[in-house]
Design goal:
Blueprint lengths: L30 E5 L7 H10 L1 E7 L5 H18 L4 E5 L5 E4 L6 E3 L4 E5 L10 E3 L5 H4 L5 E6 L9 E10 L2 E6 L3 E3 L3 E6 L11 H13 L4 E4 L5 H12 L8 E6 L2 H5 L1 H7 L2 E4 L1 H7 L2 H18 L3 E3 L14 H13 L3 E4 L1 H4 L4 H17 L3 H12 L5 H15 L4 E6 L3 H8 L6 E5 L3 E3 L4 E3 L2 H6 L6 E5 L7 E2 L5 H13 L8 E8 L2 E8 L3
Parallel strand pairs: 1-2, 1-17, 2-3, 3-13, 6-7, 13-14, 14-15, 15-16, 16-17, 18-19, 18-24, 19-22, 23-24
Antiparallel strand pairs: 4-12, 5-11, 6-10, 8-9, 8-12, 9-10, 20-21, 24-25
Helix pairs in contact: 1-2, 1-12, 5-7, 7-9, 10-12, 14-15
Cofactor: K(+)
Keywords: ATP-binding, Glycolysis, Kinase, Magnesium, Metal-binding, Nucleotide-binding, Pyruvate, Transferase
Protein name: Pyruvate kinase
Length: 527
């Protein structure tokens, strides 16, 4: 079983599967991104989500106005203070998303084998034979025989709430389609996806830019989820835009791969982006079903080798309305972890689902179980071979720290860092133990005022598998001239002890800079 992505003890004791898991301060090494919305925006529910394991809060501007999201964010800040749990903020752009405009919000019943007209005239009322869109170029983009999918926001995948259409005629600006399955569209927001067709709209729309330059700047967002990223130029354009917005030049850009075009240009997008989100809902429409798993595995592997976070969406859709996931969904979450995902995004499940807290808790438990059988040894060898020789100084030190921690069975790795890069490189090698990333603030000036860095860097590690940040006292330097900085190391060790991950006689691996050198140190703790 040496080549397997699983570690299974031989002989396998089936009874051991039923043994209860040990409780842990860290629900899982894999991070959970929760989308906050109507069912998850109160201080009480957000606090429970944080306690259950949510480490990144996603704000989706496909719906809701900035005032609504601001109120939710204020509640998040209150919850963070009361729970003392760090949480990063992700702004998800709308991008070139096509939407059905249903101003009345009355349910629309569509019958199989009948016709429906898609029109750009938003003054018309949505009906079973007419659906107004927010886009006037659809007739120029499609032809007879093309497939169009319309579903409730954050597609449920259920054929009773989403509909497949086949283009039968293009007439001026209108597109006539044959309905392939009966469905009822209920609510105000339905997204439309044309399979394998390019929509001529900018990736970062004017509406997106307005939201980022107001709401985003006001709230110092940690991550920008760039919807429908199709080319590396999309990421470069977004980064150039952020660079002119003060502190947002530190915001990390996660490219959201949602269609064939993004898949085709994946390698160049990965080079430019800080991380990748595999938007399997839309991708599952563009790709044949039998190819989805292949793209997921290949894309995550490329992210892992590049040392950039890979984030997977759409894992437990049925938990939007149910307390338990299906067997297939539970297996899907575990496979995402075994494939190498850094984080899981929960969309409808927490946004409008009936069980947001239970969903986060359940997904966290599945991730934790999968992590126990993740074959780190094989992964480590692949990563080292991929990097090749000669390694950079930092890559050599961080990979050595992981190898040492595994060999001495350390309970934790403590990494001192200013930029967060060293800690992310340690995480790249997937250590089996948590990594406490001690972020040391640095004093910087723009010639008008002095500010400390570090908060961004700490929060941005909340989406990286296995990294748990701690913002240090700025009076302690990240670099020491005379060995490990004992006072700040003691704070980090006390932090680990308080949460039960460090116990007497445990071994701890410390990675930090000493003068011009980087040092990996093994410490054995006393009583």
């Amino acid at each position: 079983m040496q080549s397997s992505p699983l570690i299974l003890e031989e002989p396998i004791r089936m009874a051991s599967i039923l043994e209860p898991s040990k409780p842990s301060f860290f629900p899982a090494m894999t991070k959970i991104v929760g989308t906050l919305g109507p069912k998850s925006r109160s201080v009480d529910v957000i606090s429970q989500c944080l306690e259950a394991g949510m480490s990144v809060a996603r704000f989706d501007f496909s719906w809701g106005d900035p005032e609504y999201h601001q109120e939710t964010l204020e509640n998040l800040r209150t919850a963070i203070k009361s729970t003392r749990k760090l949480c990063a903020v992700m702004l998800d752009t709308v991008g070139p998303e096509l939407q059905v405009v249903n101003k009345t919000e009355h349910p629309i019943s569509l019958q199989a084998d009948t016709s429906v007209v898609l029109t750009p005239d938003q003054n018309k009322e949505a009906a079973s034979n007419l659906l107004p869109l927010n886009f006037n170029g659809l007739s120029k983009a499609v032809k007879k025989g093309d497939t169009i999918f319309i579903g409730q926001y954050l597609f449920t995948g259920s054929e009773t709430t989403s509909v497949w259409l086949e283009v039968s005629e293009v007439n001026g600006d209108d597109v006539t389609c044959v309905i392939k399955n009966s469905a009822t569209l209920a609510g105000s927001l339905y997204t439309l996806h044309v399979s394998q067709i390019r929509i001529d709209l900018p990736t970062l729309t004017n509406k997106d830019k307005e939201v980022i330059s107001t709401w985003g700047v006001q709230n110092n967002i940690d991550f920008l989820s760039l919807s429908f990223t199709r080319h590396a130029e999309d990421v470069r354009h977004a980064r150039e835009f952020l660079s002119k917005l003060g502190d947002l030049k530190q915001t990390q850009i996660f490219a959201k791969i949602e269609n064939i075009e993004g898949l085709t240009h994946f390698d160049e997008i990965l080079r430019e982006a800080d991380g990748i989100i595999l938007s399997r809902g839309n991708l599952g429409i563009d790709l044949p079903p039998e190819k989805v798993f292949l793209f997921q595995k290949a894309a995550i592997y490329k992210c892992n080798m590049a040392g950039k976070p890979a984030v997977v969406t759409r894992v437990v859709d049925t938990m939007t309305d149910n307390l338990r996931p299906t067997r297939a969904e539970a297996t899907d979450v575990a496979n995402a972890v075994l494939d190498g995902s850094d984080a899981i995004v929960l969309g409808a499940e927490t946004l409008r689902g009936l069980y947001p807290v239970e969903t986060i808790s359940t997904v966290g438990k599945i991730c934790a179980e999968a992590e126990k059988v993740y074959n780190q040894d094989i992964y480590f060898k692949k990563a080292v071979k991929f990097v090749g020789e000669p390694m950079t100084h930092l890559e050599s030190i961080t990979s050595s720290a992981v190898r040492a921690a595994i060999k001495v069975k350390a309970s934790v790795i403590i990494c001192f860092t200013s930029s967060g890069r060293a800690a992310r490189l340690i995480a790249k090698y997937r250590p089996t133990m948590p990594v406490i990333s001690v972020v040391i603030p640095q004093l910087k000036t723009n010639q008008l005022r002095w500010t400390f860095t570090g908060a961004f860097e700490a929060r941005q590690s909340l989406i990286v598998r296995g990294l748990f940040p701690m913002l240090a006292d700025p009076r302690h330097p990240a670099e020491s001239k005379s060995g490990t900085n004992e006072s700040i190391l003691k704070v980090a060790l006390d932090h680990g002890k308080a949460f039960g991950i460090i116990k007497p006689h445990d071994r701890v691996v410390v990675c930090q800079k000493v003068g011009d050198s980087s040092v990996v140190k093994i410490i054995e703790l006393d009583d």
